[in-house]
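Let's do one together. I've listed all components of the complex below, 1103 residues spread over two lines.
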Amino acid sequence: MLLLLCCALPLLLGGLLLAGRALPEPHRGQVTTTAARLAPFAALPALILPVAARGGPEQSAVEVPGLLLGTSLILDETSRPLVVLTALLHAAALATIAWRPAPGPRDRSLPMPVLSAFLLLCLGGTLGVFLAADLVTFYVAFAVMSFAAAGLVIHHLDRAAVRATRVYLVLSVLSETALLAAVLMVGAAGGLRLAESPAAVVGSDHTGLILALLGFGLGIKAGVVPLHLWLPLAHPAAPPAASAVLSGALVTAGLLGFLRFSPEVAQPGAGAALMVVAAAGGLFAVAVGVLQTDPKVVLAYSTVSQMGLVTAVAAVAVVEPSLAGKVTAAVVVYAVHHGLVKGALFLAVPLLSAGGSRLVRGAVAAGTLLAGLSLVGAPLTTGWAAKYATKDAVAADAPALESVLPFFALGSALLMVRLVRVLPAAGARNARNPGAGPLGAWAVIVLGGAAVPWWMAASSPEVSTPGFDAAAVGEGLWPPAVAAVLSVVAILVGHRISPPAVPAGDLVVPAESAVAQATDATDRGLRTLGRAADSAAEAWRQGWSRAAAAARALGQRADSGLEDWIRSGAVLLALLAAGSLLVLIGSGGGGG
Amino acid sequence: MVTAEATLQGSLHETLGGIISWLPLVMVLISLVAAAAIFPLAEGRVGTRSAINITAAAVKVALVAALVPPVVADGVRPEVSMPLLPGIDLVLRVDPLALFFAGLSAILWLLTTIYAIGYLEGSPHRSRFFGFFSLCVTATVGISFSGNLITFLVFYELLTVATYPLVAHRGTPKALHAARIYLRYTLTGGLVLLTGVVWLTMLAGPVDFAEGGAESVAELAQASPQVATLIFVLLIGGLGVKAALVPLHGWLPLAMIAPAPVSALLHAVAVVKAGVFGIVRMVDDVYGIEVADQLGVLTPLLVVAAVTVVYGSLRALRQSDLKRRLAYSTVSQVSYVVLGISMLDITATAGGVVHLVHQGIMKITLFFCAGLFAETLGVHRVEDTRGLGRRMPLTSAAFTVGAVGMIGLPPTAGFISKWQLGQGALASEHSWVLGVLVLSSLLNAAYFLPVVIRLWAPVDAAQPGSPVREPRMLMVPAVTTAAFTALVGLGASLPFAPLRVAEFIAEGVFG
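Okay, and this is what the predicted structure of the assembly comes out as:
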């Protein structure tokens, strides 16, 4: 019951908030604002659930046969931590925006209750993805999440937001379609329950196609390069609270898809391809990210990089399914760590420029520093534990990946240094987001980010935690140290070389022009098709008209010829005679 | 005492059974009587006319609802039969498929009536309009309850005649041109259908619709397969005109000139639906799916449907007139039904049959909304819809739901159809159909999402345009069907939900 409430409450409240917009003023404002202020509490069931449902399966599974094509939810060891992550992030985001002051006259943003509503729908959808026990529920929740998130991206309704939303929607439609095709094939192969899907992926006649479609569809959500195009556009365009949710929870839903469908029998080719693409893309994102000037774009590239890492780790289970348990546990720890830390950093962006008392500013700076260090993997932080867990999980079967992993820490460190460099300049620009919000919500995320993954890692038998020895500490220390040295060098020589300016969204710019060209070509093709069809129809029509005219002319001629005959009565007589003859023959035949 | 009670119950049962068996005739007569009452009414008697209209429509919805449990759950088949020609009876019979179509048309007719009353407020010739409107519904109910080929043919032709004045209603040269083309197409189609029906009746005797196919037709197919195939082509070709199968679809985009309630009628309730319903009847209840398969006519039909699905979507992409775009979308979407029934798979058949209803409620929502945009703000073109979300929020929201349904995104009705059809395609021998479905989804998104994005896009701050009052008579039906679109999807697995009934029908088809 609680399980159902987790997903249903946010979805219902979100729907009600949107429906409430139809009320006449002044009720509309009152009702929706009040509902939006209560919205953070919609995450409450999801926060209670992982603790409450520790009993048997009757507590952690639910079936609603009448809903859609039969809906079923289950809380398992994979989803339990992810539910906490999602609930925390959304609650914090909702609390942050709920207290935002009324928008100024020049602000065209959607009203706050609308943002709340989309956050709630996104929460319900994301929880549904994590808790789904069958394919249909998974797909439906995925779609709800994807399209609710479009409402987050478009929030400010400015040029950047509209462009980001367009790119996001195009990619989402492609992602959903690929996913639908894949899910249909998995279902047809007998994998309607998610627990049976890994076997069905292998058992299907179209294993290769399914893996390709899944890789494409989930890769878009998880932000795997080169399908990451929407991330660097959506994050700067969306409000920071929404970015926190996008970067913390939404991308993780894509990642979970990789874990859920990881085939039962080794697929070395597909697994290796995913691993190489994800890892290479993750490092590419660092290179692009350090050239950015907007702190939220830098953070977006950090997300792309981190998702590349963790997807590459998840790909190990595709290559070697026997490792699936260990890999999944490590990936989940990493995802929770990254989600909370990245959420804390996004929420910190407006706070850092919002001012306040010296104590508050100091606390914000300290918290941000902690989150930054954790992302880099400095000793004792959750990043340290998460990186150790992933390293340990892949060490045996993917030594090449293991040797690359530290460079992601270095990349993160470089991106954090870049973030510190661009933050002060960005203060004024972000002043239009005075959503300083309650520091409390942010503090919960920071502290949660510092504690929850540790607790998870410690309580899971599959995850190994680092001991406080020289090797492990050194592992955590060298990336930030090297990054610091590199940065000092860069600052010293930086004024002599001018780094290339890469627009946010890197490949999206050529992609957009390619799409525009393709659209033009298609348009021309369609115009030709339309003209051909119209002229064929016209010819057909004229043909009939001519035939009709000819028939009329013929009829007229025959008519005038016949007229004399008819008038003479001879025709009538002849007809009568013929009729009688027919009757006669008919009755004669009957008699004989 | 006990026996007396039993007798009483028995007689009560008998009386009820007696009443139920007359219901098909009653339902046909309701609309006919309404039509007869409306034609002579003076133009100004708005109240009386609306009362007759709405009462008739509401009674019919209630009767259909009353028929669902006995017909679907208890297997009762109410039937009325009367001689038409020597040896040929006019048969009205209620089976699940008939009820399915009648239920759709009854509910949507009620909503369309309300919409039409609001839409035509103050315009001339309303008695004529509503008279033919009711005749049109008489024909539709007759089509759905037809128990044999001849009855079907009679009502099918009546529908052609009754819709012509509606398409031509405005009387402008453009409307008359569209109506003439419409008549030319449908009469030709009717003639081809007539030829097929007459030929089949000559060879196999009067053909009764039967689950799994008529026996006499199966014998004919056994004896002379070429002739049976030829007759099948004639029947489907004739029905294909109304069902807007490419290349017989030309009349549909032209007919969008008609008033919005007529478009709703053409696209969702009656005409296109009658064509495709007829195809379902021919394949499943005249020939029977197995005989049709043995004749080898299903795969060609499947290919025609697939071509129609893709072609309609491709043409819709380039239409800048909103209603024309919707019209091409209908061409594409209605063929989902044909796609479903010709894949020779039980899941696919259920998916095709359920799409009869799903397409109806989604497309009627979109036409209601297009009519609202055109009536209140004079917006006809896609590019002019920018920013309407703020001026007409409820209409825009309803349009969004309808469009999302058309694309096939969850949790709408369209998703349920697409899922069924996809699963069916993979279970059948024609897994390539999945590719058609995927391509069609993408194309649907490509021509519907830009409209949705425009609706909600920010407008130029200099001229935001004030919110307008959305006329309630028009808005309520649109919002209702939009709600249906979502609810039918959400409750797809509940008892008596369209999907459940469609699955039941599909089971009957495959015996």
